[in-house]
Each structure stands twice: as structure tokens, then as C-alpha cells.
Amino acid sequence: MDTLAMNPQQGPVRPVPPAVAAAESRRPITPATKVGVECAQRSDGVQVMTFIDRRTGVVISQTPAQQVLAVVDAVMAAIQQREG
Questions:
Q1: Is-contact 50 40, C-beta < 8 A?
Q2: What SS3 string covers 2-68?
Q3: pLDDT by residue for the chain (84 residues), tens digit each?
Q4: Quick check: 60 and 53 in contact, CB under 8 A?
Q5: Cα dihedral 67, 69, 70, 71 sign
Q6: Phi, psi for residue 77 in degrees, rounded to 5
Q7: Domain ranges, ordered by start, for the chain
Q8: What pLDDT sits at residue 1?
Q9: What angle do CA 19, 24, 26 make, to 5 degrees?
Q10: What pLDDT, on the 0 to 100 scale, is given for residue 78?
């Protein structure tokens, strides 16, 4: 991918406005001790990354999402049914 084509502006880089910089510095940072990351690979080769709240064990986020995995499973089942 050509980064110059994506950013055609030539010239000096403008600094971040002070108000934006201050807002960024106030953003709470979640310590690594509170969020766990689990990386796994399903039997069909799909890689899954899950973010877990270590205090409660609740899944915060998963990539790809369960809905996406369900679609992948449905497509694979349809292909196997057609071939079988």
C-alpha cells in the first residue's frame, strides 16, 4: 500500500491542540493485571483473540466476534454439504 497516495498533503505536521492532548492524558489506562488476553486457534484454522476481565472472568471482547464465527461455520457447513 502506498502511504503517499493515502496522505497526499505535503508540508509541515501540525501539533496536537493542547485541549486534545490534555484529554488524551486523562484517559484511564487499564492495568494489565485487570485484563487478560487469550489467543487460540480453532480446529479449522481460524485464530481467535479473547479479552477477559480477570476480576470477574467476563469476556470483554472477542475477535472475530461470535456472529462472524457463526457465519464462517454456516458457510463451511454449506460447502461440505454440497461436496458430500
A1: yes
A2: CHHHHCCCCCCCCCCCHHHHHHHHHCCCCCCCCEEEEEEECCCCCEEEEEEECCCCCEEEEECCHHH
A3: 444 445 555 556 566 667 666 665 565 655 667 888 999 998 888 899 998 888 888 888 888 888 888 898 999 999 999 997
A4: yes
A5: positive
A6: -65, -40
A7: 3-83
A8: 45
A9: 95
A10: 94
Whether 38 and 52 have beta carbons less than 8 Å apart is answered as yes
Residue 15 cell numbers, joined: 501539533
Per the structure block, which three cell numbers stand in for 30?
487499564
CA distance 68 to 76: 12
- The pTM assigned to this predicted structure is 0.48
Listing from the earlier edge strand, what are the strands of the sheet with 35-41? 35-41, 47-53, 59-63
